[in-house]
Task: structure prediction
Amino acid sequence: MLQTGAGVSAVHVNLAWIAQRGTIKGMHMQRPPSAEIKIVTCLKGRIFDVAVDLRPESKTFGVWFVTELSPDEPTSVLIPEGCAHGMQCLEDDSLVHYIHSAPYDPKAECGINPLDSEVGVPWPLEPHNISQRDQSLPGLADLQAVAQ
Result:
């Protein structure tokens, strides 16, 4: 098991190649007991990176945080457990590196629709190339009803 500088054990590592600008991926997370911390870095191109707090007990439930990631300013972002993660590709041919603190567990998958108007993420480009899986994720109101 690899330890990151952020004190997160790297249990699962992914690379995502995004061919076309405007493409949106997310908003994904894993529920307990497979909840995970993610560390996200853009190795090539540029991405608009978003985290949404989905912890029902949190004062910031439903609030999003956004930053731009690129290799020009080599920064990584840490996504805490209980926060969904998504991104929009701002340049063609972008490459994103993820470090996960837990192995992938398809039974623990969840998230919210990246276009949910209640969350209101201000995607900088016209959204397209959103997978059917991501489009079918619930909105925040539906997620909140299930969590209660």
Remarks:
- The first strand starts at residue 2 and ends at 3.
- Residues 64 and 121 are 7 Å apart (CA to CA).
